[in-house]
Amino acid sequence: MPEHPIDRLLAIMARLRNPEGGCPWDLQQDFSTIAPYTVEEAYEVADAIDRGDFDDLQDELGDLLFQVVFHAQLAAERGLFGFNQVVASICAKMERRHPHVFGDLVVADATEQTRLWEQHKRAERGTDPDRSALAGIKAGLPEWQRALKLQKRAAAVGFDWPESSQVIDKLREEIAEVEVELAAGSDPERLHDEVGDLLFVLVNLARHLEVDVSRALRGANRKFEQRFRRMEAIAAENGQSFAALTLDQQEALWQGVKREADSAA
């Protein structure tokens, strides 16, 4: 087996996909079936970073790299491209989009570099008939992430609230509209529409406050899970089933667990 780590990984992938003696599960996969695992592994990388678990980060980065290798293997089997072409493509793109590093261009700061990056991307789209400031934002992104990209592109051409307080005012407005629909007994489609507007503005608020939406939500999920599990444990310690408690009893447990967490912080 090849000595270089990446060559070894490529050889492992090829063997897994070999119809003669390969892995039945791997042989059944295609781009569409592997894509969800690719997204999942990217989130697991972010989670390891959030937790500051760098041993786990090493492992998760390996899992993510394997996803890249898997897609490259599938492409090579179809005669589309191979792993080396993927690497060559990203190398060329990074050099092309960083003329201040690999060329003579001078940029003032990270903000200027971000503007130039978007400029390079627009130039690379070339003759694309879609000349909108929103062109090229992929539909396959997680919806919160696509919302964020749409808002950033709009802001880049001046369509943005100057102050975060104005976004908060808009958030209150959207909450009021949801309440109106609830009071009117609106159909589910209307509620979907209004809640969608509310979520879109919430993402916009996070952008204005420079809060990472994904990181913030992962933190909220983690906190809820820890507190919920603690409530279940307390109930079990008292010989009770958490599910059998009344809502008032569950709420009392929740408040107790919150106080416990606050005092430990």
Helix content: over 70%
**Overall spatial form:** globular
Structural class: mainly alpha
Distance between the termini: 51 Å
The biggest beta sheet, please? none
Tell me the radius of gyration. 24 Å
Overall mean confidence score, pLDDT: 91
The share of residues in extended strands comes to under 5%
Number of strands: 0
Element order, helices and strands? HHHHHHHHHHHH
Number of helices: 12
Poorly predicted parts: none
Task: Explain what the structure shows.
With 265 residues, the chain is mostly helical. Helices cover 74% and strands 0% of the residues. It contains 12 helices and no strands. The protein has helices at 5-16, 24-28, 31-51, 54-77, 83-97, 99-102, 110-125, 143-156, 164-183, 188-208, 213-237, 247-264. The longest helix is centred in the last third of the chain and has 25 residues, at 213-237. It is globular and about 60 Å long.
Q: Which helices and strands occur, and which strands form pairs?
A:
Layout: H1 5-16, H2 24-28, H3 31-51, H4 54-77, H5 83-97, H6 99-102, H7 110-125, H8 143-156, H9 164-183, H10 188-208, H11 213-237, H12 247-264
Helix pairs in contact: 1-4, 3-4, 8-10, 9-10, 11-12
What is the gist of this entry?
The chain is mainly alpha-helical and 265 residues long. It has helices at residues 5-16, 24-28, 31-51, 54-77, 83-97, 99-102, 110-125, 143-156, 164-183, 188-208, 213-237, 247-264.
